Structure formats: C-alpha cells, structure tokens
Amino acid sequence: MKLIWNYCYIVFLVVILSCLHNYFTWKEIVGNRRFGNDSNQRLQRMKVGPGELGQAVFLDLSLFSNEERRQYEKDQNKHGYNVFVSDLISFHRSLPHNTVYNGCTKSYDIFKLPPVSVIIPFRDESWSVLLRTVHSILDRTPSYLLREIILVDDGSKKGELKTKLDIYLSHLYNVRVIRNEEPKGLMVARQRGIDQTIADVIVVMDSHQEVAEVWLEPLLQQLKEKPRALVVPVVDGIDKDTFQYKKTDLDLKKKPFTFSFDWRLMQTVMPFKSEYLLSRENFEASPIRLPSIQGNIIVANKTIFQELGGLDTGMHVWGGEQIELAIKYITCGDGIYMIPCSHVAHLYRPVPWHAGNTRISNEYRVAEYTTGDVAERKMIRKKNKCKPFTHYLEVVKELIHFYVPDNLQASGTIKPALQNTSSFCLDASSLSSVTLLACHYQSGNQYWELSADFEIRHAVFCLAVDSANHLLIKECDFEKHSKWDYMSDNTIRHRISKLCLTIISETKVNLQQCVGSVYQQWIWKRLK
C-alpha cells in the first residue's frame, strides 16, 4: 500500500512540474515579448515574395495587354491606389523589423493588460487591402489581448465583399462583419461597431492599414496608467503605388512637428516646443502628449469613450472628428498620447467616403459645441464636468507653438505715413506677395497682427524674408526669419536682416537698409 502511495505521489509531482514548466515557457514566449528577440519576427524575416519586409513592388506596364491596362487604370482610379500591386502581396506579408526607436526594449506582461475589440469600418475597399489589414492584426497581436475584430460594412456594393467575405471570415477566429444596407457615413459606421464591442478597450482603425510587431502592448500599457486618455501609435506610411512601407521620421531633435489645427479648424502641422520634449524622461521612447490626432487609428477605454459621447454621428465623413476628440480628451479626460514604441502603417490615398461640403459642416459642428451651441454635445460636456476651451488652449500652448491671438503688440491696417500714399494699405490678397492697394477698411486681406512672438500675421500667413532678403508671405512656422519689430520711429524692421519695410513705388514694397526715411514709416494701431 505504501508503495502505491509513493508511486502516486511521484506521478503527481511529475504532472505538477510539467504543468509549471509549460506555463512558464508559454508565459516567457507569449507574455513577455521583447523587441528583437521574438520568434515571430524571425519567421517574418525569412519570408520571400512581392512586398515582403515592406519593400516596394514596381511594375513594367509595357508587359500588360490592352485589356489588362484598362482594368489596371480602372481599379487605380476607383480606389486611389494600385490594386494590382496589392493583389500580388501576401495577406501575411512581413514588415521591417526595425520599426521602433531606441529605448523601446521594455517587456510587457500581457496578462496584466486589458483585451481589446478592434473596429474596422469599410466601404468597397479592395479585397486584398482589407484582408491584409485583418491578417496583420491577427498575425501580430497576442491572442490573449485580441477579444474580437468587428468589420463594419457601410453599404458596400462590391459583390466579393458580401457572401464571399462572410465565408472567408467564418474560418477566422473572433472576426465578424456587421452591415449597413445603405451608406450611413464613416462616423455612424465606427460608432455602430463600438456599440457592439465586448472588450473593455476599443481600437478603431481604417481598413487600409498594417500593424507592426508589438504594436498593441505599448498602447495598452499607457492606457492602463491613464485610463481616461486617448492613445495613438506612430503612424507610418504605405505608398499607394508601390505599397512600400515608409517609416515615419520621428527624429524629435531635427523635425519636432506634430498634427494640430488652426483657427480655420483646418488640420495642419505645428512645431513642438523643445522645452516640452526635453522635459520627458526618455527623449525617444516616452509617451508624447499631443494637441490633436490624425484620426485613422485611436485606442481608448470603451466606458470612458462612451461617457464622453462617443463619436459625433452628425459628422458623416472624416474631417473634424479628430479635432472634436482632441478637445474632448484634453478638457474632459487625461489628454492624448502618441506612443513612439507602437507603429501602425497607413495607406494614404485620395479622400474616400466622398465628402463634398460635409467636412465643412463637421468643422462648424466642432466650433459650435466647443464655443457655442449644439445641444446634445454640450450636455455631454456639462455632465462630465469638462473644463472650458481656454484650458485646451493653455495645455496646447505648453506643447507646441500654437498661435493664439492674445497679447498682440499691434493690429489692424498697415498704412504708409507718406502723405500721397496714405489711402493705400498693405494687402495680402495674392497670398504669395504683399502689395499696397486702396484701403477698403473691411479687414480681410488688409488686416494684420503683430503677435506676442513678433510675427506679422494675416490669418495663418506671415510676412517673411527669403535667403536673398526678398519679402514674401508664407504659412506661419514660428521660425526666426518671420520675426519683426514695430519700432518707436514707426519703421517695421526685420530682426535677422536688420532691414526695414520700404515703399518702392506706388504699389510695391520691399526691404531696404533702415535710414528712417518717410518711405519706411508706417501707421499701425499699437496695443502695447
């Protein structure tokens, strides 16, 4: 009897030890994935074929028959990218392994991170581009973290995206499609997908993207630390003609720019403040606070996202929603963060979901419910005790060189002091050069501001000087060649060249040596 008990005891120990060994081996491989030491990365590098490792695919169109050429051009015009090349590339193609930056060597325990639901709206996307998006997620996301992928068909007409797609997806784990019988718009499609998710975290992304290795874990780590934040990866590019993977140059020492928007509510790029960038613990790898987002991929806590009103379904296409989300998460949440250690590539192409005047409508909605009145959106802000829009401006001004027209030194029309030209005003109607034209006193192209940063601004355009000391007008960029002083003797002097704005003829102005001449004196309303 004792022998039997000893035997059972030994068997029990062997089973326990075997289970522990398997568990820790599995956890080491799957749970603590490290950059540059991942078995999947090694397999990816061994692949061969068109587009592997994100390389470009070039075509010799002289080899095409007339019929093939017509179909090629038809698909190109319809989708805005090279469908022929896309169809040559594997759904499981490899991407470059060096997509991350120095300092991105942290391991992630996936069992302490929340699973996600991925929402991908589409309308008449090409078969290969759509499925490459899906498979890149399946191939490069730990199964523990991927609860589901929901494709939202916003009224596609292509037959292959109906039953054929349903059959194909039925063989994939946790991937399903929901459909709008008629087109409802991008925001409605996205929000419908969000409403049907089951995970605590949502990833909303476009249908023409490819994720890089270890794309998700850094995003979730930041969201775990700041649950009320909106997080985004570094968005790399996919060339629309060759499908080459193009890594974004995030050298913050040389090119510190980020997406923002101007007072026209138009998306633009603006320079970071070096003081903010240098204040971060790890210059290249630490999360970067953003004033706005591109909008092609966002990651958020679902509960918080819905409490803040979700997406504004009154916006039918892209354009404006990224501004709304930016203002909302900065005034009502923990802000927006870009994670340098996470990379997702986006296929940039001409505008899908044909916009017309809808984007203008979107931007008006943002302006109204942020500073005015769109009732249902304002109630959401009130319920969540959101801070005023001025808080957004204060935060953004800490991050980037964002122009706010306060503390102006001078404003209004700029008129010559010279008697026989006093009915003329400095005019920017050409938006390429400045001239003297008859004053119309209706502001517009004759309204100028001398900002607190010593820029002479007309809307988003600034007076600047080129390398040959020629006067020009260009989009403001906060660079030193756009700095001016309105002197006590009423001359307008360029800081770098030390030259003064001078009347050359009845309508022409340029820069000349400052001599205090009446041709260099200007009447401009001083505010300081």
From TrEMBL:
Its cofactor is Mn(2+). The keyword Cytoplasm does not apply. It is a single-pass type II membrane protein. One of its GO terms (cellular component) is Golgi membrane. One of its GO terms (biological process) is protein O-linked glycosylation. Its EC number is 2.4.1.-. InterPro entries: Glyco_trans_2-like (IPR001173), Nucleotide-diphossugar_trans (IPR029044), Ricin_B-like_lectins (IPR035992), Ricin_B_lectin (IPR000772). It is an enzyme of class 2 (transferase). Pathway: Protein modification; protein glycosylation. It is found in: Golgi apparatus membrane. Residues 411-525 form the Ricin B lectin domain. Coiled coil: none annotated. Its main location: Golgi. Belongs to the glycosyltransferase 2 family. GalNAc-T subfamily. This is Polypeptide N-acetylgalactosaminyltransferase. It comes from Mytilus edulis (Blue mussel). The lineage of its organism: Eukaryota, Metazoa, Spiralia, Lophotrochozoa, Mollusca.
